[in-house]
Amino acid sequence: MRAITVSQPGGPEVLRLDEVEMPVVAADEVLIKVAAAGVNRADLHQRQGRYPPPPGASEIIGLEVSGQIAATGEEVDDWSVGDRCVALLAGGGYAEYVAAPAGQVLEPPPGMDLLTAGGVVEVAATVYSNLERAQLNDGEVFLVHGGAGGIGSFAIQYAKARGATVIATAGSQDKIDFCRSLGADHVISYREDWPGLITERTSGRGVDVILDNMGAKYLDDHVRLLAKDGRLMVIVLQGGSKATLDIAALHSKRGAITATSLRSRPVLQKAAICRSLVGHVWPLFGTGSVQPPSITSYPLAEAAAAHARLESGDNLGKIILVVDPAL
Ligand SMILES: NC(=O)c1ccc[n+]([C@@H]2O[C@H](COP(=O)([O-])OP(=O)(O)OC[C@H]3O[C@@H](n4cnc5c(N)ncnc54)[C@H](OP(=O)(O)O)[C@@H]3O)[C@@H](O)[C@H]2O)c1
Questions:
Q1: Binding pocket residue ranges, ligand 1, CB within 6 Å
Q2: Model pLDDT, residue 291
Q3: Is 2-120+263-322 assigned to CATH 3.90.180.10?
Q4: Of 81, 92, 10, 4, nearest to 54 (Cα)?
Q5: What is the mean pLDDT of residues 49-72?
Q6: What kind of fold does domain 127-259 have according to CATH?
Q7: Closest by alpha carbon to 220, among 245, 188, 257?
């Protein structure tokens, strides 16, 4: 089969379309003929050699796909050859075929075309699992940075669907406008005094739940911005990993800080999240409370251009690689 390989760690140009071995399907896995593969920021880190796959995962980049079941392992009885599906992966997505644990394979969201569905499950699983863990409640205030990105654009809509007041940040005017179009109640440039503006917009009360993509750089501001009983959910460390925590400030808020990583979770945990997506998130696509992602697509062979686009910071919404548009 054909797949994207990494000739050596480096820039987008190290991505090549190559002939590789077909994946081996374990007893509890299915083989998926890929329609589309989602492109995620983590993929850029893996290409640069800074985010190796977890033990046992495919070396091929790619954390999510949509497609059709091509074969089933002997222990799998809830999927049949020809079924349309999406899958959450630990790797292997940038390829014509990928093997996935059956528990991480889901039906596509209702009414969504199969190519768009290739860019949904990683983001939905990340946001859903974090907001569940944070127990974001109806009427609470939620802050997400990078509201126009893959995670942010889903998080705005999903938090609104849970009844939260949503504050999003973004880095440029077109992204600010995009966040507003997704339903964010307040959108603020992260290039301005965003902590001051959020304090003002919340009348000094602060924010109940923060989905944090920056880590160290924003730690102080985030702790100060938390409302009483506030929860800071760290999902990535774009702003560094080491900072000094003012425990007294956190204590005064009765605050909690949690860091999560989806990729390294055991299969059973990921399977539980996937089941919850079908039960609690996919219906929101059906009713239109959450819109399918805005998609920029590239053919599989142009994975390098897709990475360059994501790296440029100019993209709105999700990027997908189209592997087989005929599925
Ligand atoms: N922990 C996990 O399980 C998990 C799972 C999935 C993803 N992630 C991580 O989540 C992050 C977002 O993923 P994604 O797919 O949404 O990537 P993405 O589309 O590239 O989004 C990155 C976002 O970061 C924002 N940003 C850049 N500089 C910022 C700053 N100084 N302050 C605030 N925001 C800033 C950007 O905003 P502008 O575009 O407006 O500049 C952009 O929207 C990635 O780093 C990814 O690795 C973590």
A1: 40-42, 122, 126, 145-146, 148-152, 169-171, 175, 190, 213-214, 235-236, 238, 260-262, 310, 313
A2: 94
A3: yes
A4: 92
A5: 96
A6: Rossmann fold (3.40.50)
A7: 245
